[in-house]
Amino acid sequence: MGERATSDMLIHLGELRDLKPRVNYAERSSKTIGHVWGPRTIPDCQLLYVVSGAIEISLGPDQFVLESGNCAYYGSNSPHMLTISKETTYCSIHFDWNTEDTMPRHPVPGIENCYPRDMSRHPVSYDIGLDNGRTVRLPHRFKAPSLEPIFGSIVVEYREQDSGYEFVLRSQMMALIASIVRLRIQEVPFDSERRKIAPALEAIRLNPGIHWSIPQLAKMCGYHPTYFADLFGRLIGQPPKAFLMNERAKQAKRMLLTGEKLVNIAETLGYGSVHYFSHNFKKMTGLSPSQYRMHSEES
């Protein structure tokens, strides 16, 4: 299904842009105190969002409480048990990460009870690759009050099952995953390694029109240019010049969509002429600036 195990405890899901998630089941429900699920395993993955109340969760040997605005995530190889500790309203989504098939497959036939001794097994972790070479580790528990509307939309679409609903569910699920990734990035903006080049990354993102040299960027971070270039390539997955060009392309797309004149875009992004900007933009995107703007307006 596109998942690649990197160890017994970690699965790399591939690049965010390449994922094709499938919603298998979605519900919004309320339960009274004492309702229990498990210990069990599920055949797919699950996101559990608490609207109100509280759910006690045992995820392998880890235990925690989900309260209003909290979300839990776990996969098929993670024994777990859920206990309602207050009258609770929640949203639950079962899904597969990456499959061409869009039709939901109800998880119930694949849910299995497990022995209490199985709860000593730690839950599997998952990470997702981003365009800049970075990976984001999905937390098993996180705060996400802003995501309640997306959960609600997925539940409604699954219940109604109008024509083409499975494709709508895929797009909504992709939006939910992207939102979770963004929240994670905001919580952990840089790991300890990436902090070493944070000044250079910030300079490029804030001022992509400057023709930054490797010695300039290296000096910001306090490193020799050769060491800096090697470190940057290892952490980002591309050399500084390629990262700068990608940032320029992103900024150009934003400016094109807001109707900015080509001459202003070229000047802002450090290109000597509109012709030079247009040539580089087409090389990066496969479209001329005019074609990109026209395509976006038609879409």
UniProtKB/TrEMBL annotation:
Coiled coil: none annotated. SMART domains: HTH_ARAC. Keywords: DNA-binding, Transcription, Transcription regulation. Signal peptide: none annotated. It comes from the Bacteria. Residues 195-295 form the HTH araC/xylS-type domain. The keyword Transcription regulation applies. Gene3D superfamilies: Homeodomain-like. The keyword Transcription regulation applies. InterPro entries: Homeodomain-like_sf, HTH-like, HTH_AraC, HTH_AraC-typ_CS, Tscrpt_reg_AraC-type_HTH. CDD domains: cupin_XRE_C (cd02209). PANTHER family: ARAC-FAMILY TRANSCRIPTIONAL REGULATOR, HTH-TYPE TRANSCRIPTIONAL REGULATOR EXSA. This is Helix-turn-helix domain-containing protein. The lineage of its organism: Bacteria, Bacillati, Bacillota, Bacilli, Bacillales.
